[in-house]
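Example 5.3 — L-threonylcarbamoyladenylate synthase
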Amino acid sequence: MSTVYDCSQPETRQAGLAAAAGVVRSGQLVVLPTDTVYGLGCDAFDSAAVDSLLAAKGRGRDMPVPVLVGSWTTIDGLVMSVPAQARRLIEAFWPGGLSLVLQHAPSLAWDLGDTRGTVMLRMPLHPVALELLREVGPMAVSSANRSGQPPAATAAEALAQLGDSVPVYLDGGPSGEPVASTIVDLTGAQPRLLREGAISRADVADALEIDADQLI
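Solution (predicted structure tokens):
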């Protein structure tokens, strides 16, 4: 049986965050609000939980799960190195709607899908998400919907799609316009814009101090 916690009220917010932290630590799933759309998350280092996340979405391992972090500094322990371009983008847009693809640290014991040695990282601009991330650490988080269905902009929409496969839903109110994050791949010689979303190509180029047409 799933439980929905209203995070607009201090008492239920704290109860919800405590329940969500317990669920994540026990290898189960949680739905949480973010600044883009609602997310379906679990402990990034629990491969069985990641498998459960993919199963709940009806998605295969060929679409690896991104990782959300609760602070700028968390990234240092997750990737092989943080290039200067990544630092510029983090300083400009985190927390916010920018995801970075980097080479993950080879020592990490995680399995996010067929990542080919990379990880997509983001720090969301949402107080409930940040509080949970700072409590439990990095989380594997994908949009809270069944594969092929619209992303959930409310906890109720997520519940309608995912049901009892998720024991805890944190209701942070409507997410607003469901705009996906912009994705920049920094694993090659030149930055690559994989998806233009909440952050424009021009703004990414400005932060990198390059011309927009240099974003391949």
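Remark. The radius of gyration is 16 Å.
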